[in-house]
Amino acid sequence: MRHCIYLLILVLSQIALGQIYDPPPLNPDPMLEGTPVTEGATGGVMPTAEWQINNPALNSVHRFKKPLVAREKTRVAVLGYHNFSETKPVTEMLMRTSELRNQMEAIRQSPYSVISMQEFLEWRFGTRLLPEECILITLDDGWRSVYTDAYPIFKEYGYPFHLFLYTDYVHGEGESMTKDMIREMLNNGASIGSHSHTHPYPSDWNKHREEGEEQYLRFIDEEIGASKERLDSLFGGVNTYCYPGGYNDQVMISRLPGYGYVAAFTVIPGKVTSAEIPYQIHRYMIFGTDASIFTNAMDFRVAEGGTALSTGSQPGTLPKNTPKPSFNVTPLPDSTVGCSIPPITAQLSGIPGLNMSTVRMRVSGFGYVRPNINKTARTLEWTPPCRIYMPNISVHLTWETTDGRKHHAEWSFRVDRAVPVD
What we know:
The chain is α/β, with parallel strands linked by helices. It has eleven helices and 21 strands. Strands 3, 6, 7, 8, 9 and 12 form a six-stranded parallel beta sheet that branches. The chain has a five-stranded mixed beta sheet with strand order 14-21-20-16-17. The chain has a four-stranded antiparallel beta sheet with strand order 13-15-19-18, with no helix packed on it. The two termini are 17 Å apart.
């Protein structure tokens, strides 16, 4: 169940939100003062695109590897990390320090630029241009290993990074960081956002919601509002928030601007575009047990539609003329299921010359998955690790036959939160 909390606990689509809370534009970077300006995307001003693209002072040698492009052409992969060790058992939340180094080296060798949170926000709100493909590094909670293991690597590579801290864990005891450790990192490439006060789980939010609106608002004020005030008093201005476990609802989102947050981050994978809902920003949570997530984050070849690969009109859908699979699958194409999705299955025994070792499954929102394959019965089955709240899911299968030909099949189904859980 803990896996479910950190994968996707609650996703509200843009339609479900009903409205987009777009904060006022940030002030441009001081280095841009005195330059030709034009109206920014949210009503402020920004240097003209021509000036930014032609001004070499903006291209930091160690970060901006490619020329600046128009805002709408930029996509950002936001990476989310937790804990590190070279000796402790690897878990979803704890990865090998050496693996982190390998990933940072992969970024160094890539054509992608690592940007700071400030640069990310300036781009999102129309006061900065960036290269076409960028990486933003974030780390949740405040584990001491961020200082002992990750920080030296980030310093070595010259990469800025953003800490999402929950204030009940900023005390220096056990495996948490001290305030002085955090301040040192702030002086060497780090920035800070809030991750709540006590890191409540969905059951905690639900408990307070059931106690009535007044109690629920007090709980939100303490966890989200007061945590910002506490971090402000300790370390300076904080204007970003990260939902613990990704859990959020419209009540939380509607109060974020009043606390002074301009952006909030989820745990749902997907490349961020200039049209991203500022309080529903996608992130790739990099687990110690699954190297494929980092691989997916580094793959900018396919345009993604937020939470899922989109080949239809909405993320996770397919074009209306997509042929149905010629074999039995579940859930049925174009069917509707509840958030507790049953196993996704395919019966491939009717395919002549099928080479089962070549079968691959990809599920929107999760990328490539590892289904249970019965080579004798020629079936495959994959069960989502937790409840899913994305409104559409598409499944994509590929395989080869003994004549060397490649084949594919795909189907999609809908997820309705109102459908009763079995």
